[in-house]
Amino acid sequence: MQPKGFLLKGKVKMRILISDNLAHEGIDILKQEFDVDVKTNLNEEQLMKIIPDYDALVVRSATKVTKNIIEKSNLKVIGRAGVGVDNIDVNSATKKGILVVNAPEGNTIAASEHTIALITAVARNIPAAVMSLKNKKWDRKTFLGVELRGKTLGVVGLGRIGKDVAIKAIGLGMNIIAYDPFIIKDHVENNHIIVTDLDTVIKKADFITFHVPITKNTYHMIDKDKIEIMKDGAIIINCARGGIIDESALYDALISGKIGACALDVFEHEPPFESPLIDLPNVIATPHLGASTAEAQVNVAVDVSMDVTRALKGEMVKNPVNMITVRPEEYNEIRPFMELAEKMGSLYTQLKNGRISELEMIYTGKVGRYDVKPVTTAGVKGILTNILEFPANSVNAYFIAKERGIKIIEKKISKDQDAPGSITMRVTSDKATGSISGTVLGKNEQRISAIDQYKIDLIPEGHALMSFHLDRPGIVGEVGTLLGCNDINIAYMQLGRKSSRGEALMVLGIDDEIPENVLTKIKDIKDISDTVFIKF
User: Fold this and answer.
1) Which candidate in 71, 228, 270, 295 is catalytic?
2) What is the pLDDT of residues 44-64, one digit of tens each?
3) Is-catalytic flag, 288?
4) Considering Cα of 20, then 23, then 24, then 25, what sign does the dihedral take?
5) Annotated catalytic residue 469
6) Domain containing 344 — which CATH number?
7) 223 and which of 246, 490, 517, 524 could share a cystine (Cβ 3.0–4.6 Å)?
């Protein structure tokens, strides 16, 4: 699934730069097959200077992988040892065809356990009580807490961490209401988790915990107006990302008593030494410790190192950030269709010219059982490969197509999904509208079954000569004789025609490339309108 060109070439090892502290278990994995340099605490200028020498970059949260760094690089992959990628300019990486991978599962347990720890700590005033006792005070009345059992926990974001927090909180006897714009109610497996809208969560929850990334949609999603509709005395927990909560509005609400208390592991500006929040008595604050367990550090290092290795070897990665993904159980089924679609796209642009405005991909048969987005992406990649000055790949194909104004349409025709899967690619340009159809027989028998109105049975491998001509006796022999005289062997032949002695298409599979002077002689044969040498 990964962009071609990631494989090791000859005996020259690819080079990897690790620019943040990474557990040695991850470094050891990378060193087994690649040259690895560990250089930390680099500023943007220093990183820009050395990054052209590397094929992969592995970071945690400290290194900011900016547009300037990406544009200077020749990277194939950027690995983030952790879940958040807000320190990486993913759009710039995507545009340049650089795969970004992360490690979203490695710190799930650590982050969810830290969230639960903060919930219990803020409910029972544990930090303040500890400090009071250390100051030789025995003050039990001041630190009256609340029980979690029977309270409502609002979970904003039901990803891996949010879901794990919810399950743990259920075990504590809490009632769970949740909001996630990307989760359908019927897809929540645990029937103790009630999915609803954001305002309902905010209004009804006694405790509210956040587990969303920081984006333009989530930045300050909790502002003065949202706080105003919360329960009086509600408690807020944020172990996700700084900036989700408007800290100025939160400070005012904590002072007024509208918000009873909060526990924060993250801040908009870190370290938050200038933030007035950390001086309030009803605020518990930790220094971004969500993933700070020995186990989590090893897990994310191993996970990202394994994916970087897979990417550089051209294998399927587990946690891609900026490319269309395929579920592992579907990959073997859909891979032949991806390969076929890419060959169809490449064939089209070798046959036809023109500024493409629309690509329509039509699917029938068993391929319709699956998510066909990866197949469409492969088709787009095939089309772009022959018309760009730089290589398109699975990461940037969709991005480039849309940037060039190409409208992409997918259709599934509901027919027998046990029938062999077929793809029809229809392309509209400023010069013509054309189509190519293909199918997969058995496990991986790929065929091109039609080019425009011509029905053929073409194996899309190796080299082929395609000629468009008038169907007349002797023309096939003339072409064959000319190839034979130039020691060019024909592997197979296919003919398709619109009518007897009408327009026809001849496809000759050949073992070698055809010199330009031979192509010219073929084109000069009477009644041949066009001849194209094809490379699959």
Assistant:
1) 270
2) 999 999 999 999 999 998 999
3) yes
4) negative
5) no
6) 3.30.1330.90
7) 246
